[in-house]
Every structure is written in C-alpha cells, then in structure tokens.
Amino acid sequence: MNDRQHEPFALTERKKAILRAVIDVHIRMGEPVGSKFLLQDQQFSLSSATIRNEMAELEEMGYLEQPHTSAGRIPSPAGYRLYVDSLMTRYSVSKQETTRAAAIAAQKTDAVKKVLEQASRLVTEFTQYTSLYMYGGEVAESVLRFNSVWVDDVSFILVMTLSDGSVQSRGVQSPIPLDPDGLKSVTEVLNRNLSDVPMEKINLPLILRMEEQLGRFGPVMSPVMKTVYDIIGDPSPVELHFTGLNRILRYPEFSDILRVQKLFDLFESEEEITRLILDAVPGQVQIVIGSQTEIPGMEGATMIFRSFAESGHPISAIGLIGPSRMEYARSVALIGLLADNVERSIGHTA
Amino acid sequence: MNDRQHEPFALTERKKAILRAVIDVHIRMGEPVGSKFLLQDQQFSLSSATIRNEMAELEEMGYLEQPHTSAGRIPSPAGYRLYVDSLMTRYSVSKQETTRAAAIAAQKTDAVKKVLEQASRLVTEFTQYTSLYMYGGEVAESVLRFNSVWVDDVSFILVMTLSDGSVQSRGVQSPIPLDPDGLKSVTEVLNRNLSDVPMEKINLPLILRMEEQLGRFGPVMSPVMKTVYDIIGDPSPVELHFTGLNRILRYPEFSDILRVQKLFDLFESEEEITRLILDAVPGQVQIVIGSQTEIPGMEGATMIFRSFAESGHPISAIGLIGPSRMEYARSVALIGLLADNVERSIGHTA
DNA sequence: ATTAGCAGTCTTGCCTTTTGAGTGCTAACA
DNA sequence: TGTTAGCACTCAAAAGGCAAGACTGCTAAT
User: Fold for domain A143-232?
Assistant: First the structure.
C-alpha cells in the first residue's frame, strides 16, 4: 500500500565499519556521536558528508537512532544486537584474570552457593559492573541412605546421603529415651522403607507401617519425618543475589532517579530476571539487551549471563548488568571465563 | 569570653509541643514547615507570630534548622534525637502484625540465617523501608566429638559436633582404601587427640603424632585436617544483607543521584555499618541518626536496629534504614517486635 | 559516488524577572 | 511581660528570553 517503494539498503562493509565505529565511540564516550567527531577519532578516508549519508541510511535500517534532530547518533537496540552478534572485536582475557578466576575452581567446597557468590564478586571486581548470581533450590529427590550418630538418651544426629550426592545432617530430639541399639533399629527401619523413595511416595500408611515396625520406638518417627521433610520436602525458592549495586549508578544513563527506581524495582521482584535466566539456553553466554525485551525497567540496561544446568534445565547462573553502552567484548569473555571455572568447581563436587 | 551572655532558653512544655508538632508534620509532608502552616494543621491557641518566636529560639537551641532564610524549619539531627528519646508518641503494634511476626518464632529451623532473612523481609513488608540483617560468622571454637559414617573404600562422612552445639557433616575422600574398622580407628584417634581442642592448639607436632598413631592409615589425616580447618578454621566474615533497596529511592531526600550513590557505596563496603552494629549495646533497639555520626553517606538517613548477642557481644542483627524523616514510633515498635521473635526462635535451637 | 558549503533545527547554558512563601522586627495591646 | 498584627525583607524556585554550539539534511559542484 505504501507507495514509497524503497530499495532496501544493503549492509555493505563500509556501513558495518561505520556502525562499529559509532558504537565503539559511543561505548567509550557515552554521548551521541556525530559525523565530524567520528572522522577525527577513527581514521576514515571519507568526508563527514559521506559519513552523514551512511549514518542516515543506517538509521533508516534501524541500527542507529537520533535523540533529536541536531544531535549525533546513538546505537539502537537492534544496533547493539548486530554489534554483539557479529561486529565487535574479540577480547582475550589477561593472564592475571585467568589466574584469579582459577581460584574458584581450586576450592572444592561442597557449597555451590559459596562458589557462585565468589564468582559473582569477581565479576564485579573485574568488570566494575553490577553482578548477580542465581542459585536454584537444588532439592534432592530422595534420601539414598540414612545413618545415625547417638548423642544421648534423648537426642541423636541423623545423617542423610541424598540422591544428588550431597550429605546433610540434623540433630533430632527424641520424645522417648533411646539407647544406641534402639537407634540402630530406627536407622535400619528408615533404610528399609525410605531408601530412594521420593517425597510424594511418602504417605501416611507408609509412616504408620514404620511406626508399627519400630514397636516401642514408634514415637521417634514424628521428629524424624519432620527432619526428612525439612531436607527433601519443600523446594526452597530460587535465590537471586546482586553484588555491586552501586556500580550501575555511576553511569550517566542512570543518573535519572526514576530510571534507577524502575531498575531496582525489577531487581527486587526477582521474578522477571529469574525467568529470563530459566528460559535461556544453558552453557553459553547470553546477552539480553534490555530495550529489546518487554521487561519493564530494563530499558537502557543490558544483562550478560551464563547459566548452569543440572539434568538439562538451568538451575543456577552468574552474570552482570550494566548500561547497554557496555564493554561487551570484555564482559562476555570474562563471564565465560568465570563460568567455566564455576562449572569445573561444582562439577568436582558432584 | 563571648560577651553575649545569653540567658539559656528553657525547654518549656510549649516549646516541646511545638517541636513535636514541627517534626510530626515534617515527617508526614517531607518539607520545611512554617509557622502559618503549623497553625492551621495542628490546633494551637496561639498566633503565627508567637510560634515564629518559639521556633527561632528552638533553632538557637539547636533543635531546628532553616534550609535558607525564607523557608520553614526542619528538624536538626539533635531535634530528631530529642524526638525519639522523649517526644514521640508510642505506637502499639497491631494484632495482625503480632500474628505475622509470631510465624518467625514458630519455625525452629537450625538455620539462624534463614530466620534473620525472613525477619528482614517482614521488616520491609511492614514498614516499607529498606531493611537489613547482619549475620555474624559464628565459628565454633572446637570440635567436641567426631563421628564417622562409612560410605565406600575411598570415601566416608565425617560428622562433627561443635562446641556451639551445632552439628556439621562433610564428605571426605580418602587417599588410601579404608575399611569400616580402619575408619573406626581413625575416628577414635581424632576423638582422643582433638576433642575440644581449639584451632590454635592444633599444630604440626600434634598432627604428626596422630599420623603416627594411625600407622598405615596415616595418609587419611591430610584430607581430614583440611575438613576440620574448613569447619572451625577461618572465621567466615560477617555478612550483611539488604532487602528492599528500592524502597529508599522513593523519598525525595534521596532523589539526588549523588546522595544515593554515596549511600549505596556505604552499603556496599559493609564495613561501617557492621561496626556500628558491633559497637552497639545488644538487646535494645538502637536509633542512629545519620547526620549525627561521622559516617560518610549516612547524611539524611537513619538506621534503626537491634542486635543479638552470644556470650556477651553482638553476633547478628536486624534493622532498617530510611530517611531521617521517618515514622519512628512505628519503626521502633516493629523492630522490637520482630527482634523479640527472632530471639525466641534462635533461642529455641540452642 | 563523493564532497564542500550552507541553511535550519534543537539542546544547553546563562541571565534576568517574577512569584510566593516565610521570616524577623517593630509597635501596639492585654 | 507575654502576645499579636502588620510590614519590609530575603531568598529559592519557576518562567522567560537570548546566544552559542553541535549536527544534520540538502543542494550543487566535482
């Protein structure tokens, strides 16, 4: 219907070069970049007028935009997208960064959360952007084996080896006096009836049957089952943590308090960001350019992250959030490096 | 030396009433309050001129200040101090608040941190201010007793009952094949040599002696000692967590991005706030009016908190941070209520 | 296809003016 | 002696006007 049958512009090499230059400069300076400045900053064997023409076409193609008529150009979300997908020059991590990151893999603590947190701290330290980590409530399906340690007449320690390989222990108060032999039979009954039984299969008949088998030690079941439920019962909700929230405030695009408010509302609700991570393909660095999404509050911000999967779906992640005008190459490389090390570390424990 | 021998003003009841009124109104409106407005808002049987005189004297006494000559008065830090100490009208918590808060004490999970976190969430939900909790690295002094659970030839689980009453377990990989009897003797040696021995007393000669006692199982000591060190060795640093950081952005006194930056820098460093809590008297609600301290970034903000002590010194805390213009009475009451419940809850576990 | 030159646009900074809220002071009053 | 009405004064904040400067788009020449 539109009469303007407009020969679509081709993305020539020269256009690419100019687009890259514009984005590079904008990332460095944070301000709209004009044809004249571009000319003297980067070396092009062209005149400013030609660059102006090219920039006008790049704008029509949707890669650049103009805050107002008499201003320079800034990259559009689509421009950033093209940039990160195929324009930017790779960054290779420094020796020092590699070494520091390796420390994550070195410590093989059981605690996945600690590893993620440390990685997240390093992200902020390296990049100076706000970093985040998601920690999925990795709830074991079932208890593989029960062991117990006798403490005194009314208390003992229940040690549970879980289906995910981890080990949890809890103190249990017994409502009746219990000698070491009694405890032994309790443990046996638990192993016989509950080994590798998922939570949803543990029902009242089963519990009653166990109480019966225990005879006079039956009353012990009540606190024991409470403890079991505590361990494999309710899937603790996904956690989302941020480090270096002050960092994002340093950028002029977030000098408007209203924008910061919206961004922090987004952080606080946790929901949107969590879903973003859960929906993404695990194992590779993702770049989400805020204004390309429908997520309120993400305008002008970009999130880079990589998630870690367990049996197929993402369960945890590390990443960063900064202005869309961001050092992409470096950020992507560093998230990749740190994620590699996290993966190695939590792989070790399994 | 100063010739101006100025009869010091007395803090008459009328002055108190006016000061209270000024602060009440300022808390509600957020703007400097003038004599005329005060008159029509609250009912005084006085003229605006009289109030002006009184306010001028209150200013000279240091309780009020004037942003500029032609503005109303705002409370000074000292004014707020007087207000919270003796002027404000008590707030009594609602039935609903009491009930909700009681849920904290109800769940007696081992995890102190979880309790603090939940309390912190409730603080924000109730008051709509940014809340925080501090969680002190409660490191046990020593291991009271070792128990072990045999898993397979090369791995076992070490269960340690600590001096603070808690129980920790860790999987250990053995460098040499180990049968159940071997594990038993390892455990015996540990109990004989390390029971209730504080970290600083565990030195190389002691470890060597144990290896000797173990004979061919000596090599097991290395991973075991690593685990022990992991549990009682390095005091994990004090943690400080915030909830509802977006809340503070809603107040006009924090609409200036520079102020917000400084405040968030303060949050991020954690050091100053941690010390504030550690230096305070535990067990009672503390009110720290930012501008009365030397802490950079606290200007215009007020922190209300209560800490929990263990053997005398503060180890954890919950609290909130908001603008100095804050609903003090309600905030204090709610922090008190929630802290009571936290105390009850973590008391139960001990 | 490229470029020089120029008119046109729109933000930004700066200065001045106006407005209005609130004060302090003086003089009258109970 | 304490209280009040009235008035001149101050100062921040808002509104308006003006000049500077940075870029652009377009036209015409190369």
Answer: Enolase-like; domain 1 (3.30.390)
Domain boundaries, chain A: 3-87, 95-138+236-346, 143-232
DSSP annotation of B152: E
Give pTM, 2 decimals. 0.87
Write the DSSP assignment of A199-215 as a string of letters.
GGG--HHHHHHHHHHHG
- Using DSSP's 3-state secondary structure scheme, residue A136 falls into coil
- Contacts of residue A157 in chain B, CB cutoff 8 Å? 147, 159, 161, 167
| Record: fold of A95-138+236-346 | Beta-Lactamase (3.30.450)
Closest by alpha carbon to A88, among A19, A187, A183?
A19
Q: What Å value separates CA B56 and C1' D5?
A: 19
CA distance B301 to B322: 6
- B6-15, B50-59, B183-192, B243-252: which has the minimum mean pLDDT? B6-15
Q: Name the token pair of B57.
A: 């004297």
CA distance A274 to A261: 19
Could you give the CA distance from residue B216 to residue B174 in angstroms, rounded to a whole number?
Answer: 13
Q: What is the pLDDT of residues A128-179, one digit of tens each?
A: 999 999 998 667 789 999 999 898 899 998 999 888 777 888 889 999 999 9
pLDDT for res B224? 95
**CA of A6, C1' of C16: distance in angstroms:** 51
What is the C-alpha to C-alpha distance for residues B273 and B121, in angstroms, rounded to an integer?
Answer: 19
CATH number of A3-87: 1.10.10.10
